[in-house]
Design a protein that fits this description.
nine-stranded mixed beta sheet; about 25% strand; globular
């Protein structure tokens, strides 16, 4: 039998560099790297990392703002057989240091805006190799990124990554305790990208715009789906609605993955109708459920296919395909091919159609586990009658008779009031129907009689500043069930969300429960 090669992501980049060398690979601002240039630069990064003494599996911290250099650093790390650890820049300095320490980084690559915060913790990261602090533009104690990269050869890095070795650690969004590091192997990251690329309809002519931080799994979705198809990406330094629309027009972008709130900001921006966005073929909303009215509006006003993706960085994905948006608008669709899911109760018993319980699932790209957390990895698993492990999502959902999944809420966000379970998402859906509500969240706060009671936290749209909290509460309570009624509403200038669009309810609850 002829042995079948099993190319990994570094191999795909090299093949694109050979066969698509003159086509665009990465654009940021006014600079574009062709596939030939991008392939060469990532080989240089890989060889430079080996020159520091790094070995396969060693972790490389990526503390960078969106840029060409960040894309080079992440994929060069993969070519070296090392493990990329891209970090959320919104995390506190203490949180960044704890994540770098937890990952055991042997090198850290930064951009100038992050130099000062990293400089203060260098002495407390003794595991970093000599010369292993690298920054774009250099600086005291830092090697200059361009000089460091260009001193290394562009020849093929000699390392052949183990398919089952760790390829990337993505830390879950935590702002207080140490977030869990979600580990994916080279093989599972590739399989995830292939399955998502098919589901989201990427082809070799894809031009994916990346307006979200490149440390986010949402950006990895767009990057890898494009690269594996032989397409290209356009990196935005940060999201701005006007610039987002102008960039689509300028570069004729075809694909995007964003959170619902970002879509909302784009279509409600005054400049929306002034830019030609007709090149856009497929949009993916991900990170948190998109309100049904917004879902219809985005699909209509962009005039292209819209897929809602439900999933976890740990694994498991469902998609509501464009063809089903009208008929099953409130759903998040069905598992993508190769993925399965079930709904279970608190005792771990499978529930029938229509009943709500925890969503569990399995796929070929489920994470390898949580870094240094065998306890958390074990807690994340449910085993069926045949002993097969399924990933627990912590989300409450139900299936309809056609097999479509509906998200009810997060288990940990459920409010227990007077012995009754109240799901905040149901109340939030009502609040979002009010024309003055731009964003909202509902949490449980202490109540002497009921134990917990619902509180609504609302961001008003511009021009609706005259709306009073009591008027909005009365309007909402008329439309809610008796047990769901809001005890009060407070207005906020903004609500805390992570880069994946999830509302940080634990942060909101802190001021009421502590």
């Amino acid at each position: 039998m002829i042995p079948a090669p099993s190319p990994l992501i570094p191999d795909i980049l090299r093949l694109n560099g050979r066969w698509r060398r003159r086509r665009a690979a990465v654009t940021c601002g006014d600079v574009t790297l062709t596939w030939g240039e991008f392939d060469a630069r990532t080989e240089q990064v890989a060889n430079a990392l080996l020159g520091l003494g790094l070995e396969p599996g060693d972790a490389v911290g990526i503390l960078m703002n969106n840029s060409l250099e960040m894309v080079e650093a992440m994929f060069g790390t993969m070519k070296a057989g090392a493990c990329a650890v891209p970090l959320n820049l919104s995390v506190s300095d203490d949180g960044i240091e704890r994540m770098l320490d937890d990952a055991g980084v042997r090198a850290v690559i930064a951009t100038p805006a992050q130099r000062a915060r990293l400089a203060g913790m260098r002495a407390r990261l003794p595991g970093v190799a000599a010369g292993g602090f690298v920054c774009v533009g250099g600086g005291e104690g830092f090697a200059d990124y361009a000089a460091w990269r260009d001193a290394a050869p562009a020849t093929r890095c000699p390392v052949e990554p183990d398919p089952d070795a760790r390829c990337i650690i993505i830390y879950s969004s935590g702002t207080t305790a140490l977030p869990k590091g979600i580990v994916h192997s080279h093989r599972r990251r590739l399989e995830w990208a292939y399955d998502c690329g098919v589901a989201l309809r990427y082809g070799s002519d894809a031009v994916a715009i990346c307006p979200v931080g490149l440390f986010s799994n949402i950006s990895w979705l767009a990057m890898l789906c494009s690269f594996l198809a032989g397409g290209s990406i356009v990196v935005m330094e940060h999201f701005d609605p006007e610039e987002f629309l102008a960039t689509i027009e300028r570069h004729r972008c075809t694909h995007v993955a964003m959170v619902p709130l970002t879509f909302q900001k784009a279509i409600e921006h005054p400049g929306f109708g002034r830019h030609d966005v007709s090149s856009m073929r497929h949009m993916c909303t991900v990170g948190s459920p998109m309100h049904v009215d917004l879902k219809r509006r985005v699909a209509r006003e962009f005039g292209c296919e819209l897929t809602e993706l439900y999933g976890l960085t740990e694994g498991i994905i469902t998609t509501l395909d464009p063809e089903d948006v009208e008929a099953k608008t409130a759903s998040v669709g069905k598992p993508i091919p190769g993925t399965d899911l079930k709904i279970i109760d608190d005792e771990g018993r499978e529930l029938p159609v229509g009943e709500s319980g925890e969503i569990v699932g399995w796929s070929r790209f489920v994470m390898s586990g949580y870094h240094n957390r065998p306890d958390a990895t074990a807690e994340a698993l449910w085993h069926d009658g045949q002993g097969r492990p399924w990933l627990r999502t912590g989300d409450v959902g139900r299936l309809d008779e056609d097999g479509y999944l509906y998200i009810v809420d997060r288990k940990k966000d459920m409010i227990l009031s007077g012995g009754q379970n109240i799901f905040p998402a149901d109340i939030e859906a009502v609040l979002k129907d009010h024309p003055a509500v731009f964003d909202c969240g509902v949490i449980g706060i202490p109540h002497e009689k009921w134990g917990e009671t619902p509180l609504g936290l609302v961001v008003r749209r511009p021009g609706h500043e005259s709306l009073e909290p009591e008027a909005l509460r009365a309007w909402a309570n008329e439309r809610l069930g008796k047990q769901q009624r809001l005890s009060r509403i407070e207005f906020r200038a903004e609500l805390p969300r992570n880069p994946n669009g999830k509302l940080l309810k634990r942060e909101l609850r802190k001021e009421y429960w502590h």
